[in-house]
């Protein structure tokens, strides 16, 4: 299947942390778009998973992002896949939709880890952040070269909905307008 399968989807939200976000180029947009994905996922019934990198140093996830504490993975590795038990939380046939910061560090290394573990991975370019735009763009190109699909928030939401007859169509569309 070339589109994102909502029945196999999992939304992974990587490291939108309080001490990091003030330095992220256009960070408000990345946070806003990550929230759109989170709300759409809740509405449609897509499971969610969150990470925090070295929370003692980078602080907790920003207050604007509604982290579900029972779905939060604390990590020290930049690649979350290297943390004990992380991949056990992601089914082998999952379509993993990834948003987060920083694009060229934790997001990229986690995406490459997911691809190496044979997880189908979709990187949401308008829900990513890095301190410098060139780092973000370079990371997007590298992830794509290694097999990640590059998508946008709207693409994800419409693929999760599948049809205008979906009972969640109107409230989901309201999230992207």
TrEMBL record:
Organism: Bradyrhizobium lablabi
Domain Isochorismatase-like as annotated: residue spans: 9-154
Classification via Pfam families: Isochorismatase (PF00857)
Protein name: Isochorismatase
Gene3D superfamilies reported in the protein's UniProt record: Isochorismatase-like
InterPro entries xrefs: Isochorismatase-like_dom (IPR000868), Isochorismatase-like_sf (IPR036380), Isochorismatase_domain (IPR050993)
């Amino acid at each position: 299947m070339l589109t994102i399968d909502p029945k196999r989807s999992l939304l992974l939200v990587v490291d939108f942390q309080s001490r990091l976000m003030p330095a992220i180029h256009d960070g408000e947009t990345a946070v806003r778009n990550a929230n759109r994905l989170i709300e759409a996922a809740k509405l449609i019934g897509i499971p969610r998973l969150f990470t925090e990198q070295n929370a003692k140093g980078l602080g907790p996830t920003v207050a604007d992002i509604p982290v579900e504490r029972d779905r939060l993975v604390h990590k020290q590795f930049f690649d979350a896949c290297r943390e004990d038990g992380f991949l056990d939380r992601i089914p082998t046939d999952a379509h993993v939709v990834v948003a987060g910061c920083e694009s060229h560090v934790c997001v990229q290394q986690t995406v490459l880890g997911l691809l190496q573990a044979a997880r189908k991975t979709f990187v949401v370019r308008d829900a990513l952040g890095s301190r410098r735009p060139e780092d973000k763009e370079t990371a997007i190109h590298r992830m794509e070269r290694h097999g990640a699909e590059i998508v946008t928030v709207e693409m994800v939401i419409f693929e999760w909905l599948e049809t205008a007859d979906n009972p969640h169509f109107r409230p989901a569309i309201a999230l992207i307008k």
